[in-house]
TrEMBL record:
Gene3D superfamilies: STAS domain (3.30.750.24). InterPro entries: Bact_StressResp_Reg, STAS_dom, STAS_dom_sf. This is STAS domain-containing protein. Residues 33-117 form the STAS domain. SUPFAM superfamilies: SpoIIaa-like. Pfam families: STAS (PF01740). It comes from the Bacteria.
Length: 129
């Protein structure tokens, strides 16, 4: 019996969750990833999420929209999201095709993503006057 490799993992590091996508996900797998991550934000009382997509060499419009949606759902649950590891070819294709990550923060790699979370989570909230 051969073990089926996990397509993504969600690990806790202090007040943050680190979600790594290990290979391209089909639409149903992306929805499962979204559901699992949003559930874990509440269960672990996460203040921030890093989504690492470094293993992806392709990101279609559904995947891009799902990442934006996950970040918005995380925000509504009280967590900041940073997407890290977007490959150069993926970034080029996203720009050429008019896809973007909306207002979702991005960083080069996991280390910079964690620094960005620290900066955002430590900053006092802006109160409108």
């Amino acid at each position: 019996m051969t073990a089926v490799p996990r397509l993504f993992s969600i690990l806790r590091q202090g007040p943050y969750l680190i979600a790594s996508v290990h290979t391209a996900l089909d639409d149903s797998q992306l929805v499962r990833f979204q559901e699992d991550l949003v559930h874990r934000i509440g269960a672990d009382r996460a203040r921030g999420v890093v989504i690492d997509v470094a293993a992806l060499d392709v990101l279609d419009s559904f995947g891009s929209r799902t990442l934006r949606d996950v970040a918005e759902m995380a925000r509504l649950r009280g967590a900041v999201t940073v997407i890290v590891g977007i490959q150069p070819d993926v970034a080029f294709a996203m720009v050429e095709l008019g896809m973007d990550t909306g207002s979702v923060l991005t960083a080069l790699d996991l280390e910079e993503g964690l620094v960005e979370l620290d900066r955002c989570v430590a900053a006092p909230p802006v109160v409108p006057t």
